[in-house]
Amino acid sequence: MEFKIQNKMVGDGHPVFFIAEAGVNHNGSIEIGKKLIDKAVDSHADAVKFQTFKTESIITPGAPKSTKSTYHVETTGGDNEQSWFDLLKTQEMSADMHAELIEYCNKKEIIFLSTPYDEESVDLLVELNVPAFKIASTDTSNIPLLSYIAQKGRPMIISTAMATMDEVTKAVKTIKKHGVKDFAVMQCTGNYPSRLKDSHLRVLQTYREKLKCIIGYSDHTEELINPVAATAMGSKIYEKHFTLDKTLPGPDHRMSLEPDELKKTIKAIRDVEKALGSANKQVLVVEKENREKLRKSIVANKDIKQGTIILKEMIAIKRPGNGIPPEQIKSVVGQEAKVDIRAGTVINLEMVNGD
Question: Which domain holds residue 292?
Fold first, then answer.
């Protein structure tokens, strides 16, 4: 299973597609947005992803802030200080900001992605030729929006925090009904920061088996183990929030990686990929010298005169491994010595009267 996002192949046989999630950490600033792109490039991410929405289309003016284990209240204050609606308004990106950031990404040779939260935002991303759609976990069950996006005919990556398996299955059936063949499903846990014990990475296997799709992981944990574990389990897409500085004001900075942490995370994934290597068991070039030195051969355990029928007690199995291997012991025992064989000699077939 594989598909293409811009100039990158995603899926089996390809490196993990790493999405550096800038999200709303630009704080409405084009300058911060460009600095985030620079850090994503410097960290060797495959894509940098933002969020596209019209506040009026996704939330009512009186909607309360998500507590997310009190996280957003802690990071942005209670509703009496600034409403969730007003906060989101400060995080919107205009069409011009989108266009400028996309142009900057093209210049820096990194893929620009964004998550649309409403139909108007979907249309903007289509107009700007964004190559794929990343679906937020908040919209896993938003069948009307999934249907609308699916009809645009572009690859879709669906996050699944806070969802039941039935909801995930329905989401996949919905996009497939509209002709989407290129898609991935991401395991995710919907609180910030997320505890390791709430990761449930085995869900990746469930998605792979039940949904027959490319799998990925959207990570909200603070530790470095999940990039390693998820990659080893077959995750082909990895997404992680990042920021320029955890202390910046805004809802997501505190649980995001700083640039040096982003580098470490991507490096950990690339190191796992190196370690995973090939599924074909073979003798490696780097093993050949030690294979000969450390494996064992059939060796004379005592002096054996020419013409003697070799008995088992006359031989031993010792290093090095450049003679007759132990599994061929029957080619030696019971055979006649063709030459005098001194004790400690590695026996070869020319020394015995084999058939």
Answer: 285-351
